[in-house]
Amino acid sequence: MIPPDERSHDSEEEPVAKVDRRASREDPEEPTETAEEPPAAPAEEPPPDESAGEELPEINIYSLLRMFVGMVLQQAWVHLGVQMDQTSRKVVQDLPKAKTAIDVLGALVQHLDPDLDDSERRELERALADLRINYTQRA
Predict the structure, then answer these.
(1) What are the Cα distances from residue 73, in Å, to 64, 81, 89, 90, 137?
(2) Contacts (Cβ under 8 Å, ≥6 apart) of 6
(3) Residues 20, 29: Cα–Cα separation, whole Å
(4) In whole angstroms, what is the distance from residue 76 CA to residue 101 CA?
(5) What's residue 35's pLDDT?
(6) Where are the domains positioned within the chain?
(7) In the chain, where does DSSP find H-type helix?
(8) Is the dihedral of CA 107, 113, 115, 119 positive or negative?
(9) Which of 68, 111, 75 is nearest to 96 (CA)?
(10) 128 vs 50: CA distance, rounded Å
(11) For residues 38 and 22, is the Cβ–Cβ distance under 8 A?
């Protein structure tokens, strides 16, 4: 047996008891011991259920652009002061940010154009035109 002062740092150490110093209001000098909690087991993802028959949609650049279009479109309306900001729960107009969002949206739509069908193209062009008109009215 190795004496305690000669143990290496790699050896196993005895578990340390946790102390809750808030628990005892009668005698603040004497800490109360609490039970040691076991470490949490790492969360494992279950294997994919192949019998479900549902496949995840393919993620490509055009599907990502569509997601970005939706997010930027929402932010443009928020910064125009037309919709409430969901984080602050306030309606605040910020025209420089609105202009940036509208310009970025125009670029996203331009890059997305090769993958758009006619109805999507008309819908995005109409949304972009509505934003530009609303911006012009407020500027």
Answers:
(1) 14, 13, 18, 18, 18
(2) none
(3) 12
(4) 5
(5) 54
(6) 61-138
(7) 61-79, 95-112, 118-138
(8) positive
(9) 75
(10) 42
(11) no
**pTM of full prediction above 0.85:** no
For helices 118-138 and 95-112, the axis angle rounded to 10 degrees is 160
33 phi and psi, to 5 degrees? -80, 145
Q: Which two tokens stand for residue 69?
A: 């279009």
Would you state the structure tokens that stand for residue 125, as one six-digit string?
A: 């062009």
Which tokens is 21 given? 């110093």
The pLDDT assigned to 46 comes to 59
pLDDT category, 54, cuts 50, 70, 90?
A: confident
